[in-house]
Amino acid sequence: MTDERIVEARGVTHAYVPGRPTLSGASLDVRRGEFVAIVGENGSGKTTLARHLNALIPLQAGELTVAGIDAADHGRVWELRRICGMVFQNPENQFVSSVVGEDVAFGPRNFGASEGAARRVALEALASVGLPGFERRDVHELSGGQQQRVALAGVLASEPDVIVLDEATSMIDPRGRDELVAAVRRARVERGATIIWITHDMELAARADRVVVMRAGEVVAEGAPERVLTDRELLSSAGLEPPLVVRTWGELVRRGVASGPAPVTVEGLVSLLCS
Ligand SMILES: Nc1ncnc2c1ncn2[C@@H]1O[C@H](COP(=O)(O)OP(=O)(O)O)[C@@H](O)[C@H]1O
Ligand SMILES: [Mg+2]
Asked: Do the beta carbons of residue 9 and residue 26 sit within 8 Å?
């Protein structure tokens, strides 16, 4: 991780309906190479903030730059979309080809890779999301979870500097989710990609470097998972619950069999219980 702020959002405000803002002055800094989780209840504005990150909706008020590109600069929208890749909750709207391999190769092809190179990258990306051998399949015949994997493969294959995932593993079981977290982490380790992961999954948020909490269109808190995800009052004010591990630890403390700060991951819990 570097000190460079790859995302700088200041007071981003957006109203789909005039006078009823969905985002009301959201501010967020993300450093290059950082893995940030964004949490918040339904309707808190997470998706709306994400859509701004690659100029899918115009900036109405506030300031936003991604890798130094002003999101309000219409002339640089394509550059911005190359730098910032998005995976959405409903990937069926995201496919450009119904053939899995062609869809995943589209990004690299579009950004100038030769057909052979794009194909190689696409096959690697499919393998990394747990779909080796799927390149000739029809995306519409896949399950929702498989479609989410294809969408992620497409973004990984394009090698964007920033990967934004918006509830992108909602149709995938916990083991599959861990596999995708590993694939995304590899992009981070191997090429320094920045990860912004919007999720309802507190176990996933616990794996981030930093957790950002949104409430009613604003960023209301941010910090290390060990701090944010153990703050029951903060979470409950944002309509959220701590991860299961934190709740379990609370119960162990209440029964007098554990003491001290709660772990936020299962690995943390195991190492505390074994020490
Ligand atoms: N395209 C849209 N048109 C009108 N209202 C919208 C649109 N998209 C979202 N909204 C409204 O904005 C609010 C927040 O949406 P969203 O950014 O999707 O929050 P989150 O992702 O945190 O659930 C919702 O209450 C929703 O009704
Ligand atoms: Mg959303």
From this structure: yes
> Which residues contact ligand 1 via a Cβ below 6 A?
16, 22, 40, 42-48
Using left for φ > 0, alpha for ψ between -120 and 50, and beta otherwise, residue 171 falls in alpha
* This prediction's pTM: 0.95
How do residues 106-138 score in pLDDT, each as one tens digit?
999 988 899 999 999 999 999 999 999 999 999
User: In a 10 Å sphere around its CB, with 0-12 CB exposed, 13-18 middle and 19+ buried, how is residue 76 labelled?
Assistant: middle
Ligand 1 atom nearest to 167, measured from its CA: 21
Domain boundaries, the chain: 5-242, 243-275
Of all atoms in ligand 1, which is nearest to the CA of residue 217?
14
Closest atom of ligand 1 relative to the 51 alpha carbon: 17
Ligand nearest to the CA of 45: 1
For the packed helices 144-158 and 174-191, what is the interaxial angle rounded to 10 degrees?
Answer: 0
- Among the four given CATH numbers 3.30.420.10, 3.40.50.300, 1.10.10.10, 3.40.140.10, the one describing domain 5-242: 3.40.50.300
